[in-house]
Design goal:
mainly alpha, 16 helices
Length: 344
């Protein structure tokens, strides 16, 4: 999965030139700490050498690529670079999604008429499923919002392009997050303050901590939701229950995590690595490296933190694209650079 960080990030920024910036230092530090985490689990015997190599691409490489990508974007013509970044991602997403939609169009249409939104989910060409395609479309919208390009230089056409792809991806979460991102710049400045962002972040992560450590959804209720309402929503509840059981079973050792892509099969019901809550069972406190960028936005670019608020909620409770974080992290580093003026 992590291998797609290379072509998508490089493809999106290929028109820019490199220049290292201090705002990208966190990416390098995070990569080193994540490498230490992998070596620790290798030494403990939780993972083998092949899993170590795989997770170098999944966990370490995204931080390095994001730092490099941000340094390219910050080289000079930021507006042009961000526009090219967005267009590059949208071309990639179009290739990933449109051809399968065309090939399977009769089945796709009939599935929609039957209110089945999951037919196309695993038919895309490059990524694991269309939720990740939708995530990249969300990143493209983020790229345009940073400098107010949504409403100038024909940026509106890119936004429409992204929204069409989001609709075809059948990803309700990232469609909602993208619409919120587009609307967030008009939120009055009174509500966009560093302190409010901190409170929001602490509240969300405190709720996640409470659910993992002190709460468990009734199995019968989850089963009812799966059979009668929404199987996807039921999966999210089961992930919370799974992580809660892992934490209860391992005690303080849960802070180290079971190891990257290591699952407790005795406790697993469906999936685990969908959300930050589920990934905590694998990474333990190393997950904090993915929390820091949200606090960086809250401190250096509160408006951008508000724009990403729905993505934050989605990441914690619904879907966190762990192996595909490079483009989003690169944009966070751009937003946090002291020389960048955010036009929102």
């Amino acid at each position: 999965m992590g291998l797609t960080n290379i072509p998508t990030s490089v493809f999106a920024i290929g028109v820019c030139r490199p220049w290292l910036r201090r705002s990208c230092v966190f990416g390098v530090i995070a990569a080193v700490l994540m490498l230490f985490f992998l070596m620790l689990h290798l030494a403990l015997g939780n993972i083998g050498f092949s899993m170590l190599i795989k997770n170098l691409f999944r966990l370490v490489l995204p931080f390095l690529i994001s730092a490099f990508a941000a340094s390219l974007l910050l080289r000079g013509g930021l507006d042009a670079g961000l526009r090219s970044f967005a267009i590059g991602i949208l071309i990639f997403c179009s290739l990933d999604l449109l051809l399968p939609v065309i090939i399977y169009f009769p089945q796709f249409l009939s599935s929609l008429l039957a209110k089945n939104i999951y037919f196309i989910k695993d038919k895309n060409l490059f990524l694991q499923n269309t939720n990740y395609t939708a995530y990249y479309c969300y990143v493209a919208v983020f790229s345009l919002v940073i400098r107010g390009l949504v409403i100038k230089d024909k940026g509106v056409y890119c936004v429409i392009w992204a929204l069409i792809l989001l609709l075809l991806s059948m990803s309700r979460t990232f469609l909602l997050a993208s619409l919120f991102m587009i609307a967030a710049p008009i939120i009055p400045a009174f509500f966009v303050k560093r302190g409010y962002c901190y409170v929001g972040l602490i509240a969300i992560f405190s709720l996640a901590f409470y659910l993992v450590c002190y709460f468990s959804f009734d199995a019968a209720l989850v089963s009812l939701i799966r059979s009668d309402y929404d199987g996807s929503a039921a999966t999210k509840f089961e992930i919370i229950n799974y992580t809660s059981r892992v934490v209860d079973k391992n005690g303080l050792f849960a802070l180290v995590g079971l190891g990257p892509q290591v699952l407790d099969m005795n406790e697993l019901k469906t999936y685990a690595s969908h959300s930050m809550i589920g990934i905590f069972s694998e990474l333990g406190l190393a997950l904090f490296l993915y929390v820091v960028p949200f606090f960086m936005l809250a401190h250096f670019a509160p408006r951008m933190m508000v724009c990403n608020f729905m993505f934050l909620i989605s990441s914690v409770f619904v879907s966190f694209p762990l192996a595909y974080m490079s483009p989003w992290l690169a944009l966070v580093f751009v937003c946090c650079d002291k020389k960048v003026r955010l036009n929102v």
